[in-house]
Amino acid sequence: MNVKRIAIAVTMIVTIVLGVAAAPLRIAVIMPSATTDLAFSQSMWSALLTVQKEMGGESALVLKYTDNMFKVPDAAAAIRDYAGQGFDLVIAHGSQYGSSVQDVAPDFPETTFAWGTDVNTFGMANVYAYTAAAEQGGYVNGVIAAMLTKSKKVGVTGPIEVGDAKTYIDGFVQGVQSVSKSIAVAKTWTGSFSDVALMTTAAKTHIASGADILTGSSQSVVGSIGAAKDNGKVLWFGTQADQASLSPKLVVASQVYDWTGMLREIIAEHQKGTFGGKTYVLELAGSGLKIAFNPGYALPANVRKAADTAISGIIKGTIKVQP
Amino acid sequence: MTAAREAVRPKTGRVEMRDIVKRFPGVLANSGVCFDVVPGEVHALLGENGAGKSTLMRQLYGMYRPDSGQIIVDGTVRNFRSPADAIAAGIGMIHQHFMLVPTMTVAQNVALGLPSGRGPFTDTKGVSKEVTRLGNEYGLKVDPDAFVWQLSVGEQQRVEIIKALYRGAGLVILDEPTAVLTPQEVEDLFTTFRTMLTEGHSLIFISHKLYEVKAISDRVTVLRDGQVVGSGRTCDLSQQDLVHMMVGREVKDPDPRPHTPGPELVKMQGLKAMGDRGLEALRGIDLSIRSGEILGLAGVSGNGQKELAECLAGMRKLSSGKLLVEGHDMTNATVNERFDRGMAFIPEERMRDGAIREFTVGENVFLHDHMSKRFRRWIFLSFDRMREHALSLVELFSVKTPSLEVPIKNLSGGNIQKLIMARELSRDPFFLVAAQPTRGVDIGASEYIHDSLLAQREKGMAILLISEDLDELRGLSDRIAVMYEGGIIGIVDRGSSTVEELGFMMAGVTLEQMRKDGASTGKACP
Amino acid sequence: MKGLFSLNVLTGVLNSMIALATPFLYAAIGETFAQTAGVVNLGVDGIMLLAAFGAFFVTLMTGNLWLGLLAAAAIGLAMGLIMALISVTLKAEQGVSGIGLYMFGLGMSSLLFKVLVGTVKTVQGFQPVSIPILSTIPFIGPILFNNSVLVYGAFLLVPLAWVVLEKTNLGLKFKAVGQNPAAADSLGINVVAIRYLAVCIGAILAGIAGASLSISLLNLFQDDLTSGQGFIAVALVYFGGWSPIGVLGGALLFSAVNSIQLWMQVLGVNLPASVAVMLPYILTIVALMMTANRARQPAALNKPFDRSEN
User: Fold this and answer.
1) B297 forms bridges with which residues in the sheet?
2) What is the least distance, in Å, from the CA of C171 to any CA of chain B?
3) Residue B523: pLDDT band with limits 50, 70, 90
4) A36 and A90, same domain (yes or no)
5) Contacts B99 to C, Cβ<8 Å
6) Is B37 helix (H, G, I), strand (E, B) or coil?
7) Which of B112, B316, B336, B392 is most buried, most CB within 10 Å of its CB?
8) pLDDT higher for B19 or A33?
9) Cβ neighbours of C170 in B, within 8 Å
10) pTM to 2 decimals?
11) Does the residue B412 lie in any domain?
């Protein structure tokens, strides 16, 4: 009798221990647009894939995603669902998901939640907030754009005036103005993150009004890039992800969000038993933000030099960019 | 199109239906019905509501297929799969509810569904010409380019007949064609029928109105409960015979005893209101009704009777005028205030305004009384007391229903109407507006409703009876007011007017004009 | 307001208006057919999405734009048949079936895009074709007569649809089954067949609307590419009073105001961007209130036809 009991107990313990040792880390991410949007969602998804490769593939890190969660109640359900399934880290990748995280996180104290872009952890020990200082890359792009424009007119095609879409553009304007106050920066907002047709029209409107350089953010900027490409002479500056593939000759540079550093740190903390309580800000300084210069575009050396100066100035703190 | 040109010579000869059986879930609509028509005759089909007349005719017109039995056209057994087949065989049908598209012109309605002489394009001009020609030939005057929504009911019916003729129909089925017409229009329609008959057409005439059946038909067949209960030459049968066959017993004409009305209970002063189309539907109505009096309201539908009933019920806003009930100003009273003041309504559209189709019989009894203290226990409904009350009403008014729990839509029109009547009267109102209380109701139930109205009159109720059935109005009313184009064109006392006089007023001719021009307009008076 | 009233702006507004209106015209005129026959198809946006993807994918694979267009039409037809089956034959609630179709199109196009393409790519779409002589007319020539075939098609569709609806026997049948199906049935018209035809014509045109985005105007595909344009198209049908001419007016008004508001933003007119992007909607609603004409609404809209109920 006793022997049998002990045998069962031992078997159970061994199973659990082996199971735990062999169990890979599990991360789920909920995103507002597609993982292939060449913008915000893709930046996170490709960082996760990179980290997974580093850790040794699927046996070490299981990744799950739910994308196109433009409806917040659906996203909230997905967040709770993943937490309930015992995922170690649940990333709510959209500033609109904050209240959902605030609602769900207290019920799963062993689960790490990360959400962004924002800076508010709600004072919870298992919530990280993250954001990108998009204005920094915006500034650098602005400096380059100001030196390249011939018409002295630059167009900005934005979606909705919120979050990093706004801070990027604010930084861009500051960058342009740091070079020359006489360059006109015109801004349009389409009121939608996904309306490609209207974004295309907005870009065409800028071009028709004389702009020879365009930039903008959100997944719908593929339309702006298309409009630039149709014109053939208008240059494009990207943000969030490297957009050179869409128009190899006309994309000058892209600000790239690199979440890998942040992810590595969150994973390491998780294994140590810390589940949150901190805010991450991607910056040029920590290599969270990078400027990807398109090798397909021959950037004049003096412009490249000015760009590098701006980057190092921001890192050193000699250049202050207002978000 | 060639069909149009051939229209002059009807294609159909003898049509025969043999041993027709048609079942619907839970109903045997036709059981072994035999019926036939020969060219040049009018064969009337008579029966109460639900006797199976329309079902039988819809099979002849290809809308339903018989479960068994044969349809034989000119000696050949035909199997109609759709109206298209019946049309091709030379059969046309004028439905009780007109089958017209109101947003299209007359010519477009006529051309609808037929191949055009201009390929894919509509041959509007050609069709218009043909419509005019047919109209002249058969006395069916109508503007081919007018939109159907602009037409009067009588004109719409002419369009329906032209449609059948244009399609070369030899046999035309007419489902209660006179229900919506003034007596003068009926006379014109009969003239058209006679022209059609001399051209070799044959007609099947479905009607409730015995004198019309006697006036126009050569033969008559009576259906009851899906079976033929009698058939023969019209001249051999008296009205009493026909009624006897239809209901299985004699119907007595309601004949109220002389009565002295009491004090004035209801006073309408210059009531004005807008109709659904934004035109003025009531142009100043002045009427008064006394206790123990039935005031009949006659008129061709669409002259404001419906709007007046809605205004009295509080369902339509008055734009001006005053409504006094027992001296209280009820002009702007809510529906509930009207109920509380003792007003009751039997609406014209009983399934829309009087009952909720999907609700049970019991629930329909309590549509507005559920708030009454009698049936309430604190904030909850007392279902026991409600049930008891509902059962007593069902019994008192002999409503035929399997139980209180069946949806009201499963009851016949007559039983629904009896139930609504029972519900309204159970609240002991002193002013009742009854709009078309016996329309679409079988004779047995009509009689019951008439008796109830008279009984209430005896008790001193003031009743406004709106009806298009002149016999009903003349039988029940103490006075009859006639509405024409939103106003009262005349009021006559009981027994002092003929059907013809009422008919003239309904057509817009005042009594004075009528007496003045009596000789010239006398044509319609036989 | 500096420079808002210049030739440059006018040219730009007209160019953008024509481009923006193109998908609306296909989709809304298609919906006009369906609604005239009594079927509200709210799945237009879903059809546009799946067809836009189909056109894009076939073009990407074969390089043949006409095959892409054919694929869009075929997808439209298939989805139209599904809609007709559910709403006409099975008599399901039309609004719900349409929303179902929309969600199917949205999800399926997103899934196929992820599996078959993976990332945003572009194709070489239909190029502008100059019409000889006409395109040399000063000012309006280059605007009106230097467009892609799908743009010409959209504008030629308007008179074509008008003739079909107003002047042909088929048009009469569409109207009859939408206004009074019992009447049509009593004249031997096959109500079910006519409604299938109308829904399928509408769906094919919705498919072409999708293709006009993915292989003519934008030349790429992305999740939710239409961004609700199909729903605007349905609204334009009501706006246009079920007439192709009215739909044209609505599509042009909406597109023009949208284009003007972008110009206002570019030129720095002092108006908050959030108000500017609302302008097309506000103006459309105001115009709708002023011109509302319910009289033309098909009386049997949204009502399945059942012979036994009459």
Assistant:
1) B466, B481
2) 9
3) very low
4) yes
5) 180, 182-183, 186-187
6) strand
7) B112
8) B19
9) 120
10) 0.77
11) no
Sheet holding B293-298, edge to edge: B343-346, B431-435, B462-466, B293-298, B479-484, B487-493
Q: How many other CB atoms sit within 10 Å of the CB of residue B485?
A: 14
Q: Which of B185, B219, B247 is the last residue of a domain?
A: B247
Phi and psi torsions of B200, nearest 5°: 100, 5
Length of chain A: 323
Would residue B158 count as lying in a domain? yes
Looking at the fold, whether B236 and B284 belong to one and the same domain comes out as no
pLDDT tens-digit readout, B358-397: 788 888 887 776 666 677 777 777 777 778 888 888 888 8
What gap in Å lies between CA A22 and CA A275, rounded to an integer? 21
As assigned by CATH, the class of the C7-127+150-305 domain is: mainly alpha
pLDDT recorded at residue B321: 93
What CATH number is given to the structural domain containing B432?
A: 3.40.50.300
Same domain, A182 and A65: no
Range of weakest confidence among A52-61, B373-382, C133-142: B373-382
Name beta bridge partners: B481: B297, B491
Compute the nearest-CA separation of C89 from chain B (Å): 17
Bridge partners, residue B264, by sequence: B290
- Contacts of C164 by beta carbon, 8 Å cutoff, 6+ apart: C170, C171
Residue that the structure tokens 């009806």 belong to: B467
In this structure, the answer to whether residues B28 and B125 fall within a common structural domain is yes
Whether residues B199 and B338 share a domain: the answer is no
How far apart are alpha carbons A1 and A29 in whole angstroms? 48
* Same-domain check for residues A19 and A96: yes
pLDDT-derived band at A8, boundaries 50, 70, 90: low
Which 3-state string (H, E, C) describes B156-222?
HHHHHHHHHHHCCCCEEEEECCCCCCCHHHHHHHHHHHHHHHHCCCEEEEEECCHHHHHHHCCEEEE
Percent of chain A predicted with pLDDT > 70? 93
User: Is there a domain that residue A303 lies in?
Assistant: yes
| Rounded distance between C-alpha atoms, residue A223 and residue C137, angstroms | 30
Task: Tell the residue number behind the tokens 């030459």, with chain if given.
Answer: B233
Q: Within 13 Å of residue C268, how many CA atoms lie on the same side as its CB?
A: 9
Query: Of B6-10, B252-256, C66-70, C170-174, which gets the smallest average pLDDT?
Result: B6-10
Range of the domain at B274: 264-353+428-524
A217 lies in the same domain as A274: no
* In-domain check, residue B447: yes
| A209 vs B403, more confident | A209
Peptide bond into B334 cis (omega under 30): no
Is pLDDT of C23 > 50?
yes
Are A125 and A148 found together in one domain? no
Does A192 sit within 8 Å of C222, measured CB to CB? Answer: no
Q: What's the structural domain count of chain A?
A: 2
- For residue A211, give the nearest of A172, A164, A252, A154 by alpha carbon: A154
Distance CA A204, CA C207 (A): 25
Judged against a pLDDT cut of 80, whether residue B127 lies above it is answered with yes
Dist CA B247 CA B223 (whole Å): 10
Token pair in block for residue B313: 């019920």
User: Are residue A153 and residue A237 in the same domain, yes or no?
Assistant: yes
Is residue B125 scored above 80 in pLDDT?
yes
Query: Using a CB-CB distance cutoff of 8 angstroms, which residues of chain C are in contact with residue A36?
Result: 113-114, 118-120, 223
Tell me the per-residue pLDDT of A253-282, one tens digit each, with 9 for 90 and over: 999 999 999 999 999 999 898 999 999 999
ipTM (interface pTM): 0.87
Same structural domain for residues A127 and A138?
A: no
Q: Which residues of C touch A202 (CB under 8 A)?
A: 262, 265-266
Query: For the sheet containing A61-66, what is the strand order?
Result: A61-66, A25-30, A89-93, A112-116, A127-132, A279-282
What strands lie across the sheet with B280-290, from one edge to the other?
B280-290, B264-274, B320-325, B328-329
